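Workshop exercise sheet. Pairs work together: one partner reads the sequence aloud, the other fills in the structure field after running the prediction. Swap roles for the next sheet.
Pair: D.N. / O.F.
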Amino acid sequence: MPHRFKAFLATTLLCVGATLDTSAACPNRRVTMVVPYSAGGPTDALARSLADQFSKSWGVPVLVENRTGANGIIATASVARAPGDGHTILVQLTGLIQNASLYKKLPYDPFTDLAAVARIGTQPMALAVGRTSPSTDLRSLVRSFSTTPKFGTYGSFGAGSTGHIYGELLRKATSSPLTHVPHRGEALLLPELISGRIDLAFVSAATAIDSSRAGTLRVLGVTGPTRLPALPDVPTMAEAGLAGFELLGWYGLFVPKGTPSAMTECIAEHTEAALQHTDMVQRLQQLAVERRTAGPAAFTSALREDFGRWDDLIKRFGIALEQEP
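Structure field:
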């Protein structure tokens, strides 16, 4: 047998063996994907698309379960208490690590009771005003803080949310008398912003894109280091002269601590593969999520860095949620 063929055969067998080992460590019965937010929202839509891909890959049912309440804490706590066997997966957002700073006490530790599996992607936010607002760009908006005596309400989709944190950053950066008006979700915030009853708000990128196209909102700036491809004429906050808005939100997958590393790696690998599927690419585009994947080790490292940055902002502005879950 020629030497080259022997080498090829050995390499092929090693690859097959590795594939079989990985497959053996994958979920082999029903999987529950827990979503801390309501059905029909962006997180739910992303989770259901991903669940469909997982089900096809693993050949088992993958069910999405919505467990809402307490700013995502109820769902997260339930996963932290679940068996660490890879059959319970949490779909979470940046609020996972923000809550650790917002609440004095949590029923779990996001770093010791959960294991990071995979980052799916990142998403900026956008600063928007209603179409009837006299502000046509970010600079004119900032000028209006000092020239319009009664001007000064910013909305958010919840106390302690990213929109709230960014609103406080804007208030401090511009030395403006902005007053925070929290709402229970973005769906309740939008009518107030569109009507002008709220002067401005940081909204999700997907909402900013849809509302801008529909002509209901005027988008003045986006967070993050780069402009949104769907809104190429809208500058970043930094381009408009406001620093500190570079942090991005993210979507990610987590499992209970103690889940075997082989199982965690399997889920991470299948997440990477699923996100390259045409249906998932379209879903991410629809939700204005940039695919920026990271495996367990890289995602864990990024989480700790992000925690430090959000923790600094939350403490700097004295943001705290009064009721402990």
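Discussion prompt: The CA atoms of residues 3 and 9 lie 10 Å apart. What would you look at next?
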